[in-house]
Write a structure and sequence with these properties.
Elements: H1 3-18, E1 27-28, H2 30-37, H3 41-54, E2 57-60, E3 64-67, H4 72-96, H5 99-118, H6 123-138, H7 144-164, H8 168-186, H9 190-216
Antiparallel strand pairs: 1-3, 2-3
Helix pairs in contact: 1-3, 2-3, 4-7, 4-9, 5-6, 5-8, 8-9
Length: 225
Amino acid sequence: MKPNLSHRLTEELRRDIVNGVFSPGERLKTEALAERYKVSANPVREALWRLQGEGFVVVTPNLGARVRVVDDDFIRNIFELREIIEPVFVRRFCNRASSDDLRRLEQARLAFERAAETDASDFYLLDRCNREFHRIMVEEETNTEALQVVERHGDIVNAVRSKLGMTRGRMLTRAREHAQIVKALVDADPDAAADAAARHVRNAKDDFLAQLRHGRTNRPVESAS
């Protein structure tokens, strides 16, 4: 089995899970996947093993693999990890940020704010702007293992969030939280920056759980602005 084939299949299967080709809880049969992606069974098994490690797939002995169901407990676990990790990233960024770093961060903040004000229904635009804002703060981060945890969980969360939709009120609240982080960074206050980052994660968790609850009853939820 060629290593690049296994990696390519992992990427394709991950993308299809994120895009909703396979539903949460759907069984992933090795033979069917091999036929779908025109590969043998071994690359499929390797891809499922990798995706289990990333959190996209759950493999149960004697029952096989299924697409992970994202429930309230799973979301809480993800955001609890992020609340520990992300303030550390922000504190480190505060201690090393140059004036150019802060200028670029402010530009990214403004880009997200403009998108929230004018294109709040465009999930993918908002997601790109949000990722760019947070990317700047970790582009020199040396803890690659922690970065991988955050990025991997971000992909799982966004796969679900893209189906729930985003509200203008929540996006404007997020924009204000970004501004609080930037202010603390400009003030060179690592404690305030870390606290603002932790609040940002907690609020995102609470909002996401509210969206999940309301989504079960098919009622849209609008956060206070």
